[in-house]
Design goal:
Layout (H helix, E strand, L loop, with lengths): L1 E4 L2 E4 L21 E7 L6 E2 L7 E2 L4 E6 L4 E5 L17
Antiparallel strand pairs: 1-2, 3-6, 4-5, 6-7
Protein name: B30.2/SPRY domain-containing protein
Organism: Anisakis simplex (Herring worm)
Length: about 90
């Protein structure tokens, strides 16, 4: 993963709980990404826990299409206040 802070590009490391991975198929076999897109139009807050007390503002959604024909959706959340929100809201 590459990231830019001010004018410097750096290689960032994510811990295991923060990486996007495709799950095993119904037969227990490995699956792999075959397509990916990033949607920056969400206007819905992201709830981080079951009781709804932890929310983050709308963030990009990463969608991954896997070899078993499943479309997986992941929220790209940053907890660093210096990271700007890149979502672009569509006007109706």
């Amino acid at each position: 993963l590459l990231g830019k802070v001010e004018n410097t590009w750096k290689c960032w490391q994510l811990d295991d709980t923060s990486r996007i991975e495709t799950p095993l198929s119904r037969k227990g076999e490995e699956t792999f990404p075959v397509g990916l897109c990033i949607d920056t139009s969400s206007q819905v807050n992201v709830t981080l826990n079951d009781d709804g007390t932890m929310e983050r503002p709308p963030c990009p959604t990463v969608m991954v299409f896997s070899t078993d024909g499943v479309l997986h959706s992941f929220s790209a959340i940053s907890f660093k206040p210096e990271h700007k929100n890149i979502n672009r809201y569509l006007s109706s």
